[in-house]
Amino acid sequence: MSRRETATDASTNADDGAGKFGRYGGQYVPEVLMPAVEELTDAYERYVLNNEDGFVDDFRERLRDFGGRPTPLGRADNLSERYGLDVYLKREDLLHGGAHKLNNALGQVLLAKYMGKERIIAETGAGQHGTATAMAAAYLDMPCEIYMGRTDINRQRPNVFRMRTHGAEVNPVTVGSGTLKEATNEAMRDWATTVEDTHYVIGSVVGPHPFPTMVRDFQSVISEEAREQALDQLGRLPEAVVACAGGGSNTMGAFHEFVDDEDVALYAVEAGGSGLGVEASEEYAPNSASLGTGTVGVLHGAKTKLLQTAEGQIVESHSVSAGLDYAGVGPELAHLVDSERVTPVNVDDDAALAAFHRLSREEGIIPALESSHAIAYLEHYEGDGPVIVNVSGRGDKDLDTVIEESEKRDLEEAPDMEVFRA
Amino acid sequence: MSADDVTAAFADGPALVPYVVAGDPSADATETYVEALVEGGADVIELGLPFSEPIADGPTIQEGIRRALDAGMTPARYLDLVRDLDVDVPIVCMTYYNLLLQYGEGDGVDAFVEAAADAGVSGLIIPDLPVEESTALEAACEAHDVALIFIVAPTTTPERIERILERASGFIYVQARMGTTGARTDVSEDTYESLERLPEGDLPYAVGFGVSEREHARAIVEGGADGVVAGSVFVDAIAAAESVEAAADALREKAAELSAGIEDATRGEAPEPETTK
To answer: What is the set of domains in chain A, with CATH numbers?
Structure first.
């Protein structure tokens, strides 16, 4: 469906199942789900790869008319001056719903419709994927249930209201820390019960094959546009593409069409949180940097890099940005890091908050805290440009968190809000 | 004990296979519980090694796993516990694949199976490892004489059943219903359909997911099963009991009740099973 070869790049390990990227990927799911995963693989190949029944044309048209694509690639003049290099922003914050998430949610809900499924479920962390799925389900007239951790519900209330407003049920998940990991477990359990009539819209390039490949294909419209826009507006390819990485869907979306352009450097910016490493005794990592610091294991259907204890228990991750707060990462991204095509870097909570204020004040764009990590990396970038930074979403949803966290830190970049306090 | 001992446990009539989580609420308690289950009539013990993300398990077993992890259960302590058990029924380990991958240094899967065999584990059930991803584990199980038990679900296609039967050993775990583990108040129609779809073979078929009462055990065996697996009902009993002794008594009684259900069926005296969807 795009310029590059989109049949699964996943090579097959001699002795194992489908959907491998080097040593990563695969299909590690309960037997009850395997027939559904096989059915989905078949549907992915027919509709998405081979445009059966005009699926891809339908999808592209809806992305344009409902989603508002293409999104612009715009020069950030003040940041360019600050860093002495041409900084271009890929504006996924301008996609309908305010984040890149709709590219995938719309693709999967539409695919479910083509497959004859009657119900949609999804997990959500920050609520962006849940909101995008609820929007797409409302638009395509499908009943929709979203699993969301109790902690996330409390810290992302506006998104809960958005989902409910679109008619979706929001099912609180109270076990464990009540965040994305637990919500994903619960969505998989629902799917194991309802798989015959239900499609599970995974929100990132994670999970069992074909999800990592399929979600990447739906998101790669980002890099497809950005590459054309760069050639058109700059007359050349960029020196580098920078995107934040949690599960990795905006990352793979922003990188995919550039992977074969060997002169274009690709930087995946992870959440450094408040420190790197895993506190084994606490079963806690004060970061979400699985690409840079994780070890190989199996979680949520795929072999990938994880934040885990030496014994293999998955630990709680941390980031000031709820959307990056996940102990795993997409298997293809892990493979691209191993093969040194993608460079993993990280930015801590403080630097992300400072970048949030910088972009808001200097460019008139309030970025999501997730995207703020990518913007913050420009402080460390050593090339001389041009650089494309993916602004994966807008930050209106983060304002409460940002004001609170900025005051806690006494950030000099932050505006004084004290006077407006009730 | 070896892989063949798991199959042999089904030779003298339909077998009862109870499940508890190792270390819920302590390793010492688990030893007591396993003994009580064997006294109650267990023919095989399925002993859960707790993993932090149990996607195939329902709320009851999730809570048991959480209690065991909070109490400090680890793969190494699990193997010590198995080594200390003084029962003469086969022990089957149920856990998730990541714990095998991380075990020891280097190739965790083979190292885990070797250590498990050495500790006295006779079989493995890994619910997040479908047959397609099981090459490494199958080789390790063969090398160390450990049974590799696969789950057959209501959704499993005939082609997949064939693929699973080619690789399985010990017994086949027949998942009686859609969804996750958890005690129910009825026997699913899926149970009978699943059993009818399975070809006659060398391996026994044990049915689990939702079994909690004497009537369930009887109905399942009358439906043609060679064994009955029950887990959540025991994990619930452990959570509800006020002391280790009280829990052990409850487990012994419940195991005896399910054994009696199996006997009802083998005597062929009971009325037609009542089932609901």
So the answer is: 20-65+101-215 (3.40.50.1100), 73-98+220-419 (3.40.50.1100)
